[in-house]
Write a structure and sequence with these properties.
4 helices, elongated, alpha+beta, about 200 residues
Length: about 200
Amino acid sequence: MEYTENKEKRLCLKDNDRGLMAVEALLGFVVFMFAMYTIYSFIWLYMAQSKMSHALCESCQSLALESYGNDKMAFSWDKPGTKLKDVVVLMVTSIESEDESLDNFVSMDYWAGNDELSESDVQALARERFYAYLGGDKDGAEEVMKGLKVSNLNFDGTGINGDDLTIQINYKIRLLFGFNVMGKTEYETGQSVTCKMWK
């Protein structure tokens, strides 16, 4: 009789252990998935920051170099066929067929050294060049930003100070978490690059 009671107790404990193991496995799985999702979210943030940073740096360097081309090549911007854009197109067409997307990578008008250039003009130049390097044109850039979950892009703080061109972008990245983290659903950030304009 005592043997059967002990056997029943052991079977009961085994059943309890199985239930306990199932609960532990479930809790462990939930913690593991949360950790993986958190790591994935940080990787996503880094990727978005990296793409935006690359386009920003290339835009600033491109505009800074363009100022040299504008000043030193001494083109007459009123005559057709003498724009810096046309020179770039001529160089590229010797390698491949003419590509209209090059228009986004070179400014159509002379802007470097223009004392009447307003802050909004510089921001418009920076925005156009940033879009070119991020996605080829405005539509392409907006598609890339949509994929990266980037919104509210602005160029406040962009301007020319002496020989320095500064492009500053501010934007928000929507967090990938399925819930609010500390009451936030978006990560607000900004980046700034300063390049010395070639003279």
